[in-house]
Amino acid sequence: MKPRLTLRWIVFAIAAFAMNFPVLATLITAFKPPGEVSRNPSLWIKAPTLENFATVLTVSDRLNVYHYLWNSAVAALIGALLPMIVAFPLAWAMVRRGTGRSVLFPLVVNLRALPLIIFAIPLYMMYSVIGLLDTRLGLGLILAVVNLPLALLMLVNAVAEIPAEIEEAAHMDGARVPRLLIKVVLPLCRPALITTFVFGFITAWNEFLFGLMLTTRDAVPMTVGASFFFATSGGGVQWGTAAAVMVVAALPPLVLGLVMFRRISGSMVAGAVKG
Amino acid sequence: MTPGRSVENALLAGPLVLFLLAVLGFPTVLSLVYGFSETGFQTLTAPEFSGLKNFRDVTADPTFWQAAWFSLRFGAITALLQCGLGLALAVYLAPLARAHGWTVAILIIPMIVAPAMMGLMYRLVLHEFAGPVPHYLYSWFGWSPSFLGPANVFKTVVVAETLQWTPFAFLLFLTAYQSIPQDLREAAAVDGTRPWRLFWKIELPLMMPTVFVALFIRFIDGFRVFDNIYTLVGAGPGGSTTSISIYIYETFLRRGEIGKALAAAILLFATAFVLLSVAQRLLRGRAP
């Protein structure tokens, strides 16, 4: 038993190291002084420093990390909350009354499997006409579409787990549907709502393609903004600074994801298997 | 059902339906109009009907077929690699995962990192002068391949995608594996069944539905890949890593050929639709 377990630890260590290697190397590079990166590309830091983070967090006329972070936060918030708001009443109607079970449900759930680029071009054209191009709202709206399938799926599952008797009791007391939904069903769905929100926020934060296509300056999200640090304006990439900006960009979803790790992994599995 | 009730149901479904119509319905109409029209960024408001011209342009473009072939190969290879590795890891590390839940958290970190960021990180990691991978290869073996050169770039992006998304397969398989009733395994142990045989004859067949789901999801994601390849190498040397998504993006924003890009997107949609219907029919056929 003992030697086998040791072997398992070794396999785990190798897998963890290989899969997390880019993250690890980036984290280490972020703490190297600018001059050291090219002289010492190893995984060892000779003189650890916070200089790169100071550079990243200093606003220049070309790059403004706070702006990108704010854009990402607002767009991701819209992208996570909106699908829950529109999906919640339908999820209840689907479970209790079968509304939209045959058409709407498969339609929405299958959206998840479509290549997103299909929607990016017509959206670009529509946005440029109605003035949503390069706005946080415009970006948030399409991120909401990305999150809609999983939100609907998870809310349907959550409502289905509520015993019908609880609702019937409220119904007897004369509660009408809107009141029933808000006072009874919503609180009972709380765990699912939190999971859906966190998962949606991470997905929206990490999205890149729509940020790249639908924003240019005012609403650039963090993922796209980080890639600006690689666009060299003469000279080479400042690797230390680039590494630090990636750490900053990856930190919010990582912290959220690891804190909520059990719920997140559970919802990933549920979303995959039940979809 | 009373009429009052169906109005109520419509109201309950309303927000979602309106939202979909606004954000996807209208663009879909636009797609169809412009897909069959002659347009550039200058004549955006005055599309001129041109029939199937855009579709002929796309299907006559060798780059389109090259991109389609790339996406197909990339999706298939990465899905197989991820599911193979994920399955092996899940089954082998299951005892560890059960006793120490945090090990699972460590293994799924790559999934929480944005694919676009992962692509940028690989740019650092593989960089000739600043990257640790070439550095260690040089100091240990005195030689390092050019990871992003024409000869190796396909392998590089496949490995990068595989390492980021094997955790997804791992997680699905781990859950499936742990939900196999323990008494099945105990009964097999009493019968003297060897672990290897237990896996092939009992555990794997029980996990087969999950295997299909994982393969399918990973194939779809690989087929439509954009973020990580785009940030790592862009279209690649000689267009060698142009996936279908990158092809459409470049046709649209770089070359401004709106009609052609939309025609390609419509073809892609049709393909995805057919694939999806077939896959679902197959999966449903399997379900008891």
Helix-strand category of chain B: mainly alpha
**How far apart are the termini of chain B?**
32 Å
For this structure, the CATH topology of chain B is MetI-like fold
Low-confidence stretches of chain B: none
The beta-strand count of chain B equals 2
Termini separation of chain A: 39 Å
Strand content of chain A: under 5%
CATH classification, class level of chain B? Mainly Alpha
C-alpha Rg of chain A, in Å?
A: 23 Å
Shape of chain A: globular
The total of helices of chain A stands at 14
The biggest sheet of chain A amounts to:
none
Mind sketching the topology for me?
The complex is a heterodimer of chains A (275) and B (288).
Chain A: H1 2-30, H2 36-39, H3 51-56, H4 65-97, H5 104-111, H6 117-130, H7 136-160, H8 164-172, H9 177-188, H10 190-206, H11 209-214, H12 222-228, H13 239-259, H14 261-274
Helix pairs in contact in A: 1-13, 4-7, 4-10, 4-12, 5-7, 7-10, 8-9, 10-13, 12-13
Chain B: H1 3-35, E1 37-38, E2 48-49, H2 53-59, H3 62-99, H4 102-107, H5 109-112, H6 115-125, H7 132-141, H8 153-178, H9 182-190, H10 195-223, H11 227-232, H12 244-254, H13 258-286
Antiparallel strand pairs in B: 1-2
Structural notes for this entry:
The complex is a heterodimer of chains A (275) and B (288). Helix content of chain A is 75%, strand content 0%. Chain A has helices spanning 2-30, 36-39, 51-56, 65-97, 104-111, 117-130, 136-160, 164-172, 177-188, 190-206, 209-214, 222-228, 239-259, 261-274. Chain A is built from 14 helices and no strands. With 275 residues, chain A is mostly helical. The mean pLDDT of chain A is 84. Chain A is globular and about 75 Å long. Chain B has 288 residues and is mainly alpha-helical. Chain B has one domain (62-286): Orthogonal Bundle (MetI-like fold), CATH 1.10.3720. Chain B contains 13 helices and two strands; from the N terminus they run αββαααααααααααα. Chain B has helices at residues 3-35, 53-59, 62-99, 102-107, 109-112, 115-125, 132-141, 153-178, 182-190, 195-223, 227-232, 244-254, 258-286; strands at residues 37-38, 48-49. Chain B has a two-stranded antiparallel ribbon. Chain B is globular, with a radius of gyration of 24 Å. Classes of the chains: A mainly alpha (275), B mainly alpha (288). The interface between A and B is large, with 90 and 91 residues.
